[in-house]
Amino acid sequence: MLKDRIFYPLAALLAIAIVLLALSFGEKVELTDREIWCNGYVMSGENLARLAAQPGTQSVFVAASGGEPAYARLTSTAARATIDPKPGIFAPLGPEYERAFATRRLRLTITARSSAINGLEAFDMGYFTAGSGDSPWVRKRLTPNWDDYVMEYTPGALTVNQGLDHFSMWPGETGELLTMDVREMRVDVLEPPISCQ
Q1: Are 103 and 111 in contact (CB under 8 A)?
Q2: Tell me, what's the pLDDT at 4?
Q3: What confidence score (pLDDT) does residue 52 get?
Q4: Given 2, 80, 94, 131, which is the most exposed site by the fewest CB atoms within 10 A?
């Protein structure tokens, strides 16, 4: 068993590697603030394979089949209190999203359900930044049917630590190995500063 002074730096390095790997799968097209303000951010379908999971959590991509849409099956294998509490399983939002979303009121939507077998009853969702303010975790109760789970949050102004925002989920705070399914993650800018017509 590793000592804390070795384990925590290694865990931090692993988390950074996961973030960099997730970014490497991202599209290389630079979006304008206007495009982001008007179209927001959506992760669905095959892109759900790009969800990143920190140690203690797990995301498995399930391809579309038999009329069922593609989705990601999420679980936690460790209690959140025993490990670095953020960002859990997340959609990585690159620097262009961080810039466009800063100081804007955001509506965060996760389309999810409790899995049919070993289904989770509730999950937490949140929005985390590289230094401009994190939301609290917001708990949502799951049902067996696809449903939209919504929260609103306003990130702070950009800081010198620009880089990556995380639209995050934690599937089971106590690490009970129960599962949930996620079909879509969406961020919309409420009251964009320009006309989107």
Answers
A1: no
A2: 56
A3: 95
A4: 2
